[in-house]
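Suppose you are handed a protein chain with no further information: no name, no annotation, nothing but its sequence. What can you learn? This example shows the usual starting point.
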Amino acid sequence: MSNAYAITTDLEKIYLENGEYTEVNKAIQEGKTSFNKDISLPTRLPPISFTHVFASFNQKSSQLTIYYLDENNGKKHYTLAIIPNDNDMSYPNDAKKVHLGNGQEMVYFKSDGFITYRTVVNNFEYTFIVDKASNETINVNGIMKIINSMI
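A reasonable first move is to predict its three-dimensional structure. Written in structure tokens, the prediction is:
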């Protein structure tokens, strides 16, 4: 008799059962407690569909990460990572800069099939990561609108 293995596509089971990811509100609360201050989140989301949202807070690296996924389309991902702005941000040489509505800079660059957008809001560094498959829908102007919804 051979061993049978269940194959699951239930993202909730995959992401929540191993303990690395949790519900968004729980991770945000862990971040607020660790940082000892409120964390601003965008009130806008990209104009693409997501079926699931998960989060994690890494105490060691002081990083809150929110993952937006679509179980029906494994090629579209959107991630928001938030860390205290304690260090100077470094970027690749081909990074581009734009100014947001409040005069703040946003830097963006492409690497490994993803486009990374970074800015600082309320002494936190916000990193928005979008896969290239979503870049037609979530472009620089779209990310600027998302960031401006926090300011």
